[in-house]
Amino acid sequence: FASCENRMPPLTHSVGIDLGTTYSCISYLNPQGQPITLPNEEGELTAPSVVLIDGSDVIVGTEALRNAVSHPDRVIQHAKRYMGDTQKSWTVDGQRYTPVDVSAFVIRKLLDGAESRLGPIKHAVITVPAQFSDIQRQWTSEAGRLAGLERVDIINEPVAAALCHVLGEGNWFAEIANDQTVMVFDLGGGTFDLSLVRYNKDKVTVVASGGDLNLGG
Questions:
Q1: DSSP 8-state assignment for residue 82
Q2: Residue 148 φ/ψ region, left for φ over 0, alpha for ψ in the -120 to 50 degree band, beta for the rest
Q3: Residue 143: how many CB atoms within 10 A of its CB?
């Protein structure tokens, strides 16, 4: 029995990641089904989506943001705005970094903090704007895999907000008798989204969505 127990795979957790233009965070569901935001290794619940390339070191978060003025040639910000743009990249010390690379650094930073509390993480759901194209969604998934995840699922940000609205009231889909429509405003640090979301006991659907990937703050 002991030998069989030793061969069992380690317990892993699934998490949700808000990969933001300016700030990012990571959460998981506790045994009671409540979402808990996990702090990073510096104890922060949100981390700036900023990357500093310092020689062979990659620094993500508040420390990177502090260097944005003094070392702008080594600091990369707002990578989310360029997801899907094959022409956009940053070069530091002769090394080229794509939006996928930068996003992977941010995700890895979040995972490091979460894994110190939960253990290994191989699956994550990452939120994206409803107006993200297929290639932008593919690049987001690729960033997650580059960060070490084995499985990455994508969910629209307004859908996630609608789910929070429903479940936050203590309801489950089976308990919703009538279709309901909700207007979701996402006032992000780097983007602005406005979505009309309809939900019932079977599904959540984005009826219409608009926004600006360069408007936020």
A1: G
A2: left
A3: 27
pLDDT, tens digit (0-9, with 9 covering 90-100), for 84-102: 999 999 999 999 999 999 9
pTM, full prediction: 0.86
On the question of pLDDT at 32 being above 90, the answer is: no
Residue 26 CA to residue 89 CA, distance in Å, equals 26
* Backbone torsions φ then ψ of 207, nearest 5 degrees: -75, -45
Q: What is the pLDDT of residue 3?
A: 43
The pLDDT of residue 35 is above 70 = yes
Percent residues over pLDDT 70 in the chain: 88
Pairing type for strands 13-18 and 121-128 reads: parallel
Helical ranges in the chain per DSSP H:
2-6, 62-66, 99-118, 134-146, 157-167
- Are 45 and 56 in contact, with CB atoms under 8 Å apart? no
Structure tokens at 194: 């406005």
What is the C-alpha separation between 142 and 196, in angstroms, rounded? Answer: 28
The strand pairing partners of 194, in sequence order, are 185, 210
Burial class (CB in 10 A: 0-12, 13-18, 19+), 202: exposed
What burial letters (b/e) apply to 162-174, b meaning 16+ CB within 10 Å? beeebeeeeeeee
User: What gap in Å lies between CA 107 and CA 46, rounded to an integer?
Assistant: 12
